[in-house]
């Protein structure tokens, strides 16, 4: 047995298995390798390395230009959407979807505001006699009933002034409730994303061009008014589209409605809020179950379908309802989740709407009470897009025909009517949530139905005070210097960039003139107000109150260039309480005892110098602007071991620099061989300044003593470069220098004219040479063609193959067959 098993083991053949296989070397490429490296010349306006280095000048200008272009593009986009909101077909689509109950309230509002003519209200009969209405009552009986009521009759095209804006606000509340229940949010809207890196921008641009459109990545896309109408038919879209369509609905009803847009452009600053999000904020997280989303409608028990049928409510007088009605309403609302919406609709035109008691009170429901039951059909819920944005980007302003004032309405996000100051303040962005979502208040623009636009930002600022929330986000008003003949700054003029941008949209042209409503609005709601000065009571002062006070000042609040005069005396003391330390007292001085101070160098550039014996009022550390000065300060500090300080002097401690008169035509010079001439008073008596170019060479040629005039400095690249403006010479040498300068100037002009003349002659010769070359080439071509064609005649023995005949078929197949044979080439054969 053992021998047989051994034999069997010997018969088995084992294979060698390589445990650590070495990959075979890939084949070496044949030929030369060509690498193409393209340098990216674009400038990144982000800070990818997180360094503390500030932005360069070109980076700042790029962000400013990007911000300005983005604002203008958003303005144009909103102008297009505003024109779409005036489309009659779009308005008809929205009006056809209104429930009958709201249609009745709309017609009543239009009738009270004189928007319906009498001919539209008269019920015409088919036969002879008096016309009857659908209820069987004659028109005369209806008119008699109106005369019996104590109400006043309103003439056609006149506004019923009774009740003020109560009817308008009541109708808007009905429309807001209907819209909130009817419109579905299905895509994200516009939002501020921030500045992205170049790599991210390339990826997003490529995806936008090549990939299939994704609303979560590329944003909502509506390419034309046809797609805008489709959104109105389906009653779905983003929050922005919802507000825009609601504006179109109000215009279709007959209201003067503005489309208001809170622009969200990329900023021009360099704070962290201007950087892009790490993740796409438009993309939804994990998909929630339909029960957890905010459904417009929820399914009820099928067993209660009979009870869900709409029932007409009994008519009652006034605004009150019976106890049974209230009990039935409470039973209907019983069992509803506390987070569900109060207003409901089935998405169909004839579906009943349930309104709250406050909404019923707002409407003049003296004819009937609207009863609502829950529909049986289930509507898909709105998707939770832009839930991190607590404030709207679009809303509506409605003009009251009675008070001629605009009232903001938001049916989407805030669901509020700004009929008072508290509701109006809710439109201003604020809070940590809006800061994280990069939601800002910078430019709020209202677009009117006539295509004009208006800056209405002041209405939504707290107490109408500027800059308010617009600070750091709205491009500020610039002070542009205006120079005089001598190149000095004469004054400053204010330049409002956004005022220039919106000037192309505002009213004031012959086609769209300004109205009295515009003037009234500018004088009231849009009038900027100055911040009121807070009066601090005696004994209740704080450090902040002293810092902003115009009467008192603490020494700790003095700026670097501010100091107290030597005669200043404190008027009182202020007790500062520290944490865990004893209270300290600080002296309080009058603000009028504070003066501005400057260093000796700064005063010297203004033509002044400290008086002899004056001591500086203050000593502060040096501010080195150039590399050489920094090196000098570092060496001095190393040698002394102390911080180097410079003295500051007030204007009362300085006097004008008046140099002594020159002697023997010798001009005084500084250590650099120049003369400082920052102001006219620094010119020595007996000398004259000649600010002409080339005068230094003339002085050297005439062997006249001179000094180059330094009139200022230019700072750049950590260097100070002096500005040289001509020379200073003695008065007796002025005429000689000017005579030579005029000769040199005439010679210079002659040489420049000669240079331009030669350049013109050379250019003319090139043109003539090109023309001659073209003519010669044309001649050669024509001569060669004549040789080939023998001057238009065929030479002897030249055989030409006859080309094949090309038969063109006419519209009629056999109309011209055989014309050449039988017809004689177009002539009649005899």
TrEMBL record:
InterPro entries: BHD_2, DNA_repair_Rad4, Papain-like_cys_pep_sf, Rad4/PNGase_transGLS-fold, Rad4_beta-hairpin_dom1, Rad4_beta-hairpin_dom3, Rad4_BHD3_sf, Transglutaminase-like_sf. Its main location: nucleus. Pfam families: BHD_1 (PF10403), BHD_2 (PF10404), BHD_3 (PF10405), Rad4 (PF03835). The keyword DNA repair applies. SUPFAM superfamilies: Cysteine proteinases. GO terms for cellular component: cytoplasm; nucleotide-excision repair factor 2 complex; XPC complex. Keywords: DNA damage, DNA repair, Nucleus. One of its GO terms (molecular function) is single-stranded DNA binding. Residues 1-33, 123-145, 278-367, 792-830 are annotated as: Disordered. GO terms for biological process: mismatch repair; nucleotide-excision repair. Coiled coil: none annotated. Residues 536-595, 597-660, 667-741 form the Rad4 beta-hairpin domain. Gene3D superfamilies: Rad4, beta-hairpin domain BHD1, Rad4, beta-hairpin domain BHD3, Transglutaminase-like. Residues 1-18, 357-367 have a biased composition (Acidic residues). It comes from the Eukaryota. It is found in: Nucleus. Residues 314-327, 334-344 have a biased composition (Basic residues). Belongs to the XPC family. This is Rad4-domain-containing protein. It comes from Hyaloscypha bicolor E. The lineage of its organism: Eukaryota, Fungi, Dikarya, Ascomycota, Pezizomycotina.
